[in-house]
């Protein structure tokens, strides 16, 4: 947690600020070539900042168990059961090739929950339009020191600390 | 331990055909040295996990994918054939890349190359120092998982540095012949160097097996 927050996330924040500064300069000079050249850095560091900011709130020492109320009903409606949803998000997260994230998102157009995977730090909403509710970081830095190559063990453990209150708040905010 | 003779990457991993046209499976190559032999630059713990877990998984999954592919091919199920391509690229690339990587490293490595390879590096990059800086920078700059490569551009007859994402194999995706690869997946360094990829990239130059890189280069130029 300490490395993840104070080194990795901090680096995304610093590099995002630096990139945005360069972008402003390019914009002011009308240097569209440079504006475009900065896109990957913006997506990478901007996405990294967005994703990790959500992630910290998705976790809690008092977390775990299952959601209640409207979110649980929506999960049952869109996945059949909580167990099926949990299995699906775990499988999608395990199957990410390389670095990336597994997500529970909300599809506003269709008014339903949806599971998706993103590569690297691609932000869910910016690249798919889905509203992020719950993210699982599967970059190796998220688990390697403790779980080594056994990503499935990390994915088993993380369900013990999911902050369903936060996920529910995000869901209720979507539905407005 | 097997000592891997250098040969072009395209020939290394073709399983031989048996008399019935069935193919033999891919196997995990032995390391040419003990897991701890690259210390202090690369820890034995990393080498053991990297070889016996990560590379082994690519080999097993490649074999499984190829088996499914053969079944789909036999049934004329082109949809499945296509659907299996990402797994083939990922696991096939993982097997190719790591097989090259183990030979690119040596406990007796480090320093600079000599002879024709050094001359080519000077010609194509200006100096060894400039080449080293460029490959380091490219490897440091990989966003997410991937590899930095020194490759040979056969068309143009020159050395070239490139980065690949995930386990995308250099030759299969760019046409460049792989000479020297640097794995920058976090599993390649995290246990020892944590988030400080640049420290890993500094250390790895101490164990580069220039003899192997030279053999690969000489094989390209034929």
Automatic annotation (TrEMBL), chain A:
One of its GO terms (molecular function) is superoxide dismutase activity. Mn(2+) binds at residues 4, 52, 137, 141. PROSITE patterns: SOD_MN. Keywords: Manganese, Metal-binding, Mitochondrion, Nitration, Oxidoreductase. It is found in: Mitochondrion matrix. Its cofactor is Mn(2+). Residues 67-170 form the Manganese/iron superoxide dismutase C-terminal domain. It comes from the Eukaryota. InterPro entries: Fe/Mn_Superoxide_Dismutase, Mn/Fe_SOD, Mn/Fe_SOD_BS, Mn/Fe_SOD_C, Mn/Fe_SOD_N, Mn/Fe_SOD_N_sf, SOD_C_sf. SUPFAM superfamilies: Fe,Mn superoxide dismutase (SOD), C-terminal domain, Fe,Mn superoxide dismutase (SOD), N-terminal domain. Residues 1-60 form the Manganese/iron superoxide dismutase N-terminal domain. Pfam families: Sod_Fe_C (PF02777), Sod_Fe_N (PF00081). Its main location: mitochondrion. The keyword Transmembrane does not apply. GO terms for cellular component: mitochondrial matrix. Gene3D superfamilies: Fe,Mn superoxide dismutase (SOD) domain (1.10.287.990), Iron/manganese superoxide dismutase, C-terminal domain (3.55.40.20). It catalyses: 2 superoxide + 2 H(+) = H2O2 + O2. The keyword Metal-binding applies. Its EC number is 1.15.1.1. Belongs to the iron/manganese superoxide dismutase family. Destroys superoxide anion radicals which are normally produced within the cells and which are toxic to biological systems. Destroys radicals which are normally produced within the cells and which are toxic to biological systems. Homotetramer. This is Superoxide dismutase. It comes from Myotis myotis.
TrEMBL record, chain B:
Mn(2+) binds at residues 50, 98, 183, 187. It is an enzyme of class 1 (oxidoreductase). Its cofactor is Mn(2+). It catalyses: 2 superoxide + 2 H(+) = H2O2 + O2. One of its GO terms (cellular component) is mitochondrial matrix. SUPFAM superfamilies: Fe,Mn superoxide dismutase (SOD), C-terminal domain, Fe,Mn superoxide dismutase (SOD), N-terminal domain. Pfam families: Sod_Fe_C (PF02777), Sod_Fe_N (PF00081). Its main location: mitochondrion. The keyword Ligase does not apply. Belongs to the iron/manganese superoxide dismutase family. Homotetramer. This is Superoxide dismutase. It comes from Myotis myotis.
């Amino acid at each position: 947690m300490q490395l993840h927050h104070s080194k990795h996330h901090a680096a995304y924040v610093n590099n995002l600020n630096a990139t945005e500064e360069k972008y402003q300069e390019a914009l002011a000079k009308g240097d569209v070539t440079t504006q475009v050249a900065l896109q990957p850095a913006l997506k990478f560091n901007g996405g990294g900042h967005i994703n990790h900011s959500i992630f910290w709130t998705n976790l809690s020492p008092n977390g775990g168990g299952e959601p209640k109320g409207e979110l649980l009903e929506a999960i049952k409606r869109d996945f059949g059961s909580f167990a099926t949803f949990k299995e699906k998000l775990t499988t999608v997260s395990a199957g990410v090739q390389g670095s990336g994230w597994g997500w529970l998102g909300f599809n506003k157009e269709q008014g339903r929950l949806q599971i998706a995977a993103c590569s690297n730090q691609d932000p869910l909403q910016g690249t798919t339009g889905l509203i992020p509710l719950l993210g699982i970081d599967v970059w190796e830095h998220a688990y390697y020191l403790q779980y080594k190559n056994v990503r499935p063990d990390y994915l088993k453990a993380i369900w013990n600390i999911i902050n369903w209150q936060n996920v529910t708040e995000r869901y209720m905010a979507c539905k407005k | 331990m097997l000592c891997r003779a250098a040969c072009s990457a395209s020939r290394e991993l073709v399983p031989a055909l048996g008399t019935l046209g069935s193919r033999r499976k891919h196997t995990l190559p032995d390391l040419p040295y003990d897991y701890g032999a690259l210390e202090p630059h690369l820890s034995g713990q990393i080498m053991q996990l990297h070889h016996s877990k990560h590379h082994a998984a690519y080999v097993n999954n490649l074999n499984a994918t190829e088996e499914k592919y053969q079944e789909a091919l036999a049934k004329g199920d082109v949809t499945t054939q296509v659907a299996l391509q990402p797994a083939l690229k990922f696991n096939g690339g993982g097997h190719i890349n790591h097989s090259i990587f183990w030979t690119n490293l040596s406990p007796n490595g480090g320093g600079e190359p000599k002879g024709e390879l050094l001359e080519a590096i000077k010609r194509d990059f200006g100096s060894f120092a400039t080449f080293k800086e460029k490959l380091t920078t490219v490897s440091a700059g990989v966003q997410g998982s991937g590899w930095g490569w020194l490759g040979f551009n056969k068309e143009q007859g020159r050395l070239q540095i490139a980065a690949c994402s995930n386990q995308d194999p250099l030759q299969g995706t760019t046409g460049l012949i792989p000479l020297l690869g640097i794995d920058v997946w976090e599993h390649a360094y995290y246990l020892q160097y944590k988030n400080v990829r640049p420290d890993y990239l500094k250390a790895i130059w101490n164990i580069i097996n220039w003899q192997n890189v030279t053999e690969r280069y000489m094989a390209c130029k034929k």
